[in-house]
Amino acid sequence: MPNPWIPRWGDPAVRFDRGWKYPTAEEIAFAKTQPTLKGVMKRQIYYPTRITDQVPWLKNFATKLPGYETALGLPSAHVDACVASCNFAVYVLGDWLTAVRDFGPASTNAMDLLLAGSGPAPVVLPVFTLPALPEGVASVPPGALNRLFDLVQLIKASPAYTDTIGLDLGIVGSSVSPHAGEAAPAVKLQAVASGANQAVAGSPNQAVHITFKKHGHMGVYIECQRGTGAFEFVAIETGSPYLDDRPLLVAGTPEVRKYRLRYWDKGTPNGDWTDIATITIN
Question: What is the CATH number of domain 186-281?
Fold first, then answer.
C-alpha cells in the first residue's frame, strides 16, 4: 500500500536537506498539533511618524489613559508617569519646537550679517526665549516614549483589553508601508537660489533642497561633508524636504557638499546609510 503522506513544499514535517523523506507516524502526529499562522498582516507601530500627528496622539492618550487604569489593572505610578510624559512631550513637540523653528531664520540672518554683512554697528545676536510651560506641566526624565510603549504592552496584555479600548487609545497599528523593508531612505538633492525660500532670504549663496523618503520611519538623520572636511551632523528631520541653508565655508567660492542619510526612530539613528549624494553650490 502506498504511503498516504504526500510531501508538500513548506510542510513542517517534511525535510528536504537530503532529498524527500516521509515522516514517521509520531512526526505526523506532532506536526498536526503545531499552530499555523494564516492571513497574518504585518503591523507597524501605532505611534505616528509625523510630529504634527504625534501631538494629538499624545493628547488623546494622556486624556483617556486614566479612565482605563482600574479596569485594566494598570500600575498607578506608571500611568501617572506616562500622563506626565505625554503632557511634557506635547509642550516640546508643540510650543517649544514651533518657537525653535521660528527662531531659526533670525539666527541664520544674524550669522549671515556677521559673516558677509556690512555696517558700523556691532552684530547683536537674537535671544531665544522659552515659551511658558502650561499649568501643571513639568519636565520629565529621558525615555518618555519608552515608558509609553512599555505601558501599552501592559495594556494589551490585560485580560480586560479589547480592540475598542485599543482604538480609543490609538494603540492599534495599521498596515505596514510597502517600502517598510527598505534598508535606507531615498534622497534627492537640488541647488536652489537663496531667495527661493523666505527662511534663507538674504543669504549670499545657494541652499541645498534635500528631498527624502523615510519609508514609514519617524524621520531621517542627515550628515554632510563640506569640502575636504569630515562628515558632520546637520539635522534630524521628520518631514521632507529639508533645506540646508548654511553659508559657504569660503564666501564666493563654489563648494562641494556630500550628503548621507539614515533612518531616525525614537531618538536613535538606525538602518544603513544612503549612497553618498553630491552637489556643488555657489
Answer: 2.60.40.10
